[in-house]
């Protein structure tokens, strides 16, 4: 777990968007041609013009990017090139007797900004009511092709290729012999690929979603349901939950898989188009029992959207999906479980998956009896009522507590 002096050679990085890029964005926003979105007050057809228009107008004339930029620059961050790919990452050393180095991977469409609430409690637990023995060195990269880890200069990136890059970041750039990893959504796939190929270097893993490597390997790779229909005898509650799962995720996976570049041409040229696509995910995937506007303030939404816009990251991030098919994951060994390092899990019940689960006990049982359980060396499982799909952001307190609990067993 040692960390040699390579860290001292890193040059600090600050986010500093050129003013001309911000001026161009504002000009495009002010020239928006809004869609006459008839009969969509309840957003039956997707994000409505009525919801989007005030947000776009605020983005064009009111949103203070420089203030958000200052917030993003609060923590130490760096940018390096690995395998011809830029990697931007936050890196904050732990305050405790023996910090565990922990790489935290976000999903799509998340930037490193979604995981910033974890930094304080994980690096300095004593200052947040915890035990200094639970401290971590926290490394939060933007996945290559996402946000500030751009421009990539290569079109073949996917989760297992990113895992190779992250391993080099942790071992060659930062000099750790052993490290830990955590991840949710697409970042969970990166975490699993690390745990499979580099188990000897991994202290332990922690997940917000149970996603083993090999995802999207089925024949109907674009179909989240793999062709399954809702059973005719399904009870109304289960039918509603299955229909909600389909309406939440199916179009996302199908379009990203089948029309990545076709979609990107529009989103890369139109900030309102890009915002609508991102916003639909944030709004649809987050905890429906909470208040979206309160949990996802407009300044946060527009900060994330601006990060994707100014870096032209929307296309390189979307392509990760089809590249999991074009460049399929191949196991490095046949040992079991396929992801060998000890692993903990944090599940939030506001997510649409798995359908028909309503209590903490049911969520844990669904995992224990589900198809992914045997892929992991499970040592800790927790579920929480608060939060939806964006685990690190929607319930950072629960994720932090669960990460601490997992690694108390491994220190």
UniProtKB/TrEMBL annotation:
Residues 132-202 form the AB hydrolase-1 domain. This is Pimeloyl-ACP methyl ester carboxylesterase. Pfam families: Abhydrolase_1, EHN. Residues 11-111 form the Epoxide hydrolase N-terminal domain. SUPFAM superfamilies: alpha/beta-Hydrolases. It comes from Streptosporangium brasiliense. Coiled coil: none annotated. Signal peptide: none annotated. It comes from the Bacteria. Keywords: Aromatic hydrocarbons catabolism, Hydrolase. Belongs to the peptidase S33 family.
């Amino acid at each position: 777990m040692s960390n040699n002096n390579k860290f001292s050679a890193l040059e600090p990085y600050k986010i500093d968007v050129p003013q001309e890029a911000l001026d161009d964005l504002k000009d495009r926003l002010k020239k928006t041609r809004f869609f006459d979105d008839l009969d969509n007050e309840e957003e039956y057809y997707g994000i409505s013009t009525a919801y989007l228009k005030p947000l776009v107008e605020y983005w064009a004339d009111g949103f203070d990017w420089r203030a958000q930029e200052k917030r993003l620059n609060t923590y130490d961050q760096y940018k390096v090139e690995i395998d011809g790919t830029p990697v931007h990452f936050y890196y904050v050393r732990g305050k405790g007797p023996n910090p565990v180095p922990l790489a935290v991977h976000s999903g799509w469409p998340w930037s490193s900004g979604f995981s910033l609430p974890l930094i304080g409690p994980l690096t300095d637990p004593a200052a947040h009511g915890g035990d200094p023995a639970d401290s971590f060195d926290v490394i939060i990269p933007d996945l290559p092709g996402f946000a500030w880890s751009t421009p990539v200069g290569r079109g073949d990136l996917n989760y297992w290729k990113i895992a190779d890059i992250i391993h080099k970041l942790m071992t060659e750039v930062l000099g750790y012999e052993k490290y830990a990893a955590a991840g949710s959504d697409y970042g969970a796939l990166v975490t699993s690929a690390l745990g499979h190929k580099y188990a000897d270097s991994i202290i332990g893993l922690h997940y917000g979603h149970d996603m083993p490597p090999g995802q999207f390997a089925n024949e109907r790779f674009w179909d989240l349901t793999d062709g399954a229909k809702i059973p005719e005898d399904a009870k109304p509650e289960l039918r509603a939950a299955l229909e909600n799962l389909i309406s939440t995720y199916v179009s996302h996976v199908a379009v990203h898989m089948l029309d990545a570049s076709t979609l990107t041409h529009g989103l890369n040229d139109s900030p309102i188009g890009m915002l609508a696509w991102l916003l639909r995910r944030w709004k649809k995937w987050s905890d429906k029992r909470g208040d979206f506007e309160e949990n996802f303030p407009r300044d946060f939404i527009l900060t994330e959207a601006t990060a994707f816009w100014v870096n032209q990251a929307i296309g390189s991030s979307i392509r990760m999906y089809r590249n999991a098919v074009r460049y399929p994951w191949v196991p490095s060994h046949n040992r079991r479980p396929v992801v060998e390092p000890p692993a903990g899990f944090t599940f939030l019940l506001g997510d649409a998956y798995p359908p028909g689960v309503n209590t903490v006990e049911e969520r844990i049982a669904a995992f224990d009896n589900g198809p992914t359980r045997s892929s992991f060396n499970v040592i800790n499982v927790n579920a929480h009522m608060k939060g939806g799909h964006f685990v690190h952001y929607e319930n950072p307190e629960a994720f932090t507590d669960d990460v601490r609990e997992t690694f108390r067993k491994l220190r």
